[in-house]
Amino acid sequence: MRSTRTGLAIASIAVIAAAGVPAIAQQALSWTPCPEEFGRKVECAEVSVPRDYDDPAGPQIKVAISRQKATSDRRRGILLLNPGGPGSSGRGMPGAVGELAPRGVTDQYDLIGFDPRGTGASTPVSCELTAEQQDVTKLMPYPAPDGSITANLAYAEQVAGQCAADPNLPHVTTANTARDMDRIRAALGEEKISYFGGSYGSYLGAVFTTLFPERSDRVVLDAVVDPTDVWRRVWQFWGPANEERFDDFARWAAQRHPTYELGNTPQAVRQTYLDLTGKLDITPLAATRKPMSGNDFRGRTRGALYGDESFPSLAKLWQAAKLADAAKAAEARDELQLPDDSQSLPATLWGIACNEASWPRDPEVYRQDVARDRKRYPITGGMPSNVWPCAFWPHQPETPVTVSDRGQPTVLLLQNRRDPATPLPGAVAMRDALGDRARLVLADQGGHGTYLTTQNACASNAATAYLVHGTVPEDDVTCGPDTEVPDARVASGPKRDELVRKLRAAQFPF
Questions:
Q1: Cystine design at 329: which of 311, 320, 424, 467 (Cβ 3.0–4.6 Å)?
Q2: Burial grade of 225 (CB within 10 A; 0-12, 13-18, 19 or more)
Q3: Which residues pair with 78 in a beta bridge?
């Protein structure tokens, strides 16, 4: 049986130490240098946690963590980091955040990354996918060019059956990951956790501070998920959100028509996209590794909408597709983020999506929704409403945690007005759920993620002031577009763009 939401399993083994710090049999951690790509100052260790919190003395699994220590004697505590996903590993975050964050943050906090249960170097989960099954257009299920989802239904049923063989997968839930975070806190000998998480990490942080309000310190949630209707509706919102965000790229490309020749008005750029996807649906463009189909082109375009820094590479991809230049298309495609091909990433993604929410079991629901969305939201081609393995999931889902306004501290929400992955209605719903406990900082810009990944001084400095000084806005804040330079370690240039790409790459794996 999977864990309940009460957290009683933790409470039953916790004692209150003389100093008032809840203790969970603190573990002795063995720190070693992390892989070089995480940064030379980052060290790694492992924490043991129960596979099933209803059976805390039963089988244990490992959660891999990383740490970059505070750089001054003004250390305040730990800042736990999560990049999103679900399915993304997070041990590389301290190095990237350590280079991007203002010195006030890195002076005061040990930056703590972790690979959530099932991912990265933590005890893995797997659905034993074949190479063909790991194709990104199947993981994020685009219908066939004619709108049929027959192949998608067969795929979803097949991999759901494969997922059933992993004994750890039923225990991959947001609530259990939040409980793991409390074990990390205890293993580090800390009384409380400060937290910065984006995308899915916003929901994870909200669940943690709901389950453990007394162990939460300063909590910053970026690119905010709607906590009231997980999970199918969260992905269905990609349809309208990508339409709105696409207009940002269309305006950008139209202003650069002499360079890329994709259309001299936003409407013309949109028509170029529709023409190219239709053409590639019929005849995929030969390119390195595999041909570029219409759905592959749609997926690359959607991923590039996460950040303005990807617009030049996206424009080059379109240009190459328009000219049918296979070599340049392959080069441009490689500049855009490729999904991780690990087995644990899709398994964890499906574990979260399917273990904690009910999905329709009737295939006709998906057929009708896809047909409707292909007409309403042609940019995403019906993908956001398509069938997932959750429709055939072998495990009974548990009830998601109800995010509430109970307890302290203040939770600071950061949101871009035109986010293609976690659109504004999600942040509004989270603000309502948290009530007076939350403040929303809304930036009038596009892209997925605000703090450290954009140069919006108003929004970024609000987050820094909260983390460093505990300063909370008196009310919600609306910021203009990113025209100023925030208080940041790396203000601009290629180095910043590369660090931002590294952070964005994990915010959603596909």
A1: 320
A2: buried
A3: 110
